[in-house]
Specification:
- This protein is of the alpha+beta class and 94 residues long.
- It has one domain.
- The protein has a two-stranded antiparallel sheet.
- A hairpin with a 2-residue loop joins strand 1 and strand 2.
């Protein structure tokens, strides 16, 4: 059986393959609600704004010594190179 973290990473990559919102010109932070059941991904809604989980995401980025979510959002609009997230922690419990 896969670990919870491995499942979360696989879900994230699956989600990113399905959502092509950036190719449609969207910039900045957004929230995507979905359900993963029986090996399928079901989208519920896409919210083009900061979410209540933004605070936790920002915490993980900073704890991982990465730029804040607000810096990522700013860079998206200023055509600056985006900082990487390769070393980002995946859980506030890590």
């Amino acid at each position: 059986m896969k670990s919870q973290t491995t499942l979360e990473i696989n879900l994230l990559y699956t989600l990113l393959r399905y959502v092509k919102i950036q190719s449609m010109g969207y910039l900045g932070v957004l929230g995507i609600d979905y359900i993963y059941a029986n090996g399928k991904l079901y989208f519920i809604e896409i919210n083009p704004r900061f979410q209540s989980s933004t605070q936790q995401l920002d915490y993980l980025l900073k704890k991982s010594s990465l730029s804040s979510i607000f810096d990522y959002n700013y860079r998206a609009f200023k055509d600056k190179e985006m900082p990487g997230t390769k070393n980002m922690l995946l859980s506030v419990f890590s």
